[in-house]
């Protein structure tokens, strides 16, 4: 049985810049590095987001893959937060991209948007007790 999403993986152009974004802007913690087994060179950095979930960052990306709404496949990932205003203030304070300011969505959750240095779209969401997500969680936990 599935326990949860263990990690999302991204190829990055500049590891130091990307790690700084996830740490300083979003509050992830650098957990550990995995070197290449064959030669010990840098290969993967794991960023911890809480709840047993990680972002896996791979060194060495060189080809841009700009997001377009019409692309099939990956669209964005969402990070659950306790306080949407607090995370938005942190995004503004660190000078990170401010794609969409906090607003309440059709599902009653509060959301705002940014993107990482490689253009990965990130939704930040504060779940509302009335949201279908919270209602579903409540129903399966009873």
Q: What descriptors fit this protein?
A:
142 residues, alpha/beta, 2,3-Dihydroxybiphenyl 1,2-Dioxygenase, domain 1, four-stranded mixed beta sheet, 23% helix
Give a summary of the structure in a few sentences.
With 142 residues, this protein is an alpha/beta fold. It has helices spanning 15-25, 84-94, 132-141, and strands spanning 7-11, 29-35, 42-50, 53-58, 77-80, 100-104, 110-115, 121-126.
Structure notes:
The chain has 142 residues and is α/β, with parallel strands linked by helices. It folds into two domains: 62 residues, Roll (2,3-Dihydroxybiphenyl 1,2-Dioxygenase, domain 1); 68 residues, 2,3-Dihydroxybiphenyl 1,2-Dioxygenase, domain 1 (Roll). The protein is 23% helix and 34% strand. The chain has three helices and eight strands; from the N terminus they run βαββββαβββα. A four-stranded mixed beta sheet has the order 1-4-3-2, covered by helices on one side. It has a four-stranded mixed beta sheet with strand order 5-8-7-6, with helices on one face. β2 and β3 form a beta hairpin. The protein starts with 6 loop residues before the first strand and ends with a helix. The mean pLDDT is 95.
